[in-house]
Design a protein that fits this description.
Helix 3 links the parallel strand 1 (37-42) and strand 2 (60-65). This protein has a 6-stranded mixed sheet with strand order 2-1-3-4-5-6, covered by helices on one side. The chain has helices spanning 5-21, 23-29, 49-52, 81-92, 107-113, 125-129, 133-142, 148-167, 171-178, and strands at 37-42, 60-65, 97-103, 183-189, 196-200, 205-210. It has 9 helices and 6 strands, in the order ααβαβαβαααααβββ. The protein folds into 2 domains: 1-29, no CATH class; 33-210, Beta-carbonic Anhydrase, Chain A. By secondary structure, it is α/β, with parallel strands linked by helices.
């Protein structure tokens, strides 16, 4: 059996902070949740939304899947994990913001890019990431001679736009956006630098929202 002591110690530390040092917040969350935003992020273990954004419990309603994708609205008898989470956040919790958080070095987007190379994407992954096939096709058409890693970085950003577009196919999302009750955001996190960009609808570009971390140099008189 694998050693999970680290995780058990972690929940003990969490209990001490949450129920001890932050007991007031803990008591308010018993009665329900009122998160401001739904964040749609990737399953990647390096991109934990609550950790990245330094959020307390109850501040974010988080939906994570491979490559932070949103499929278009389809109403049928299939299982709809993403759509049901989206419906709950928008119609029940009435969040005011939806953030699609993509990131660099995304394995899901890598699988999408490798689809044309007869790569093995497993039983489910290939079909899932194909939601963003239009993003891949656009990148390959516009950057046919670019190195593969640059194509992947561009596709990661284009896939965010696909998800934003698909969000607007949900009637209750579109209605709330039109009324000014709901705002959609596309963010792109760079794992290597920590830099965060956002999609500016006016310029059509991903622009810097939070710059990369720069370590302050030591004082001149430091030994």
């Amino acid at each position: 059996m694998a050693d999970v002591t680290k995780f058990l110690n972690g929940i003990e530390n969490f209990q001490q902070r949450h129920f001890g040092e932050n007991a007031e917040l803990a008591s308010t969350l018993v009665d329900g949740q009122q998160p401001q935003a739904l964040l749609i992020g990737c399953c990647d273990s390096r991109v934990d939304p609550a950790v990245l954004l330094n959020c307390d419990l109850g501040e974010l309603f988080i939906l994570r899947n491979i490559a932070n994708l949103v499929p278009p609205y389809i109403y049928n008898d299939d299982y709809h994990g993403v759509s049901s989470s989206l419906e709950y956040a928008v119609c029940r919790l009435e969040v005011t913001d939806i953030i699609v958080l993509g990131h660099s070095e995304c394995g899901g987007i890598a699988a999408l890019m490798e689809a044309d190379d007869s790569g093995d994407s497993g039983e489910f992954i290939g079909k899932w990431v194909n939601i963003a096939a239009a993003a891949r096709d656009k990148v390959l058409a516009e950057m046919p001679d670019a190195p593969r890693d640059k194509q992947a970085r561009a596709c990661e950003r284009e896939a965010i736009l696909i998800s934003l577009k698909n969000l607007m196919t949900f009637p209750w999302v579109k209605e709330r956006v039109a009324k000014g009750q709901l705002c959609l955001h596309g963010w792109y996190y760079n794992i290597k630098t920590g830099q965060l960009r956002y999609y500016n609808q006016l310029t059509g570009e991903f622009e810097i929202l939070v710059r990369r971390y720069e370590k302050s140099p030591p004082p001149a008189d430091a030994v």
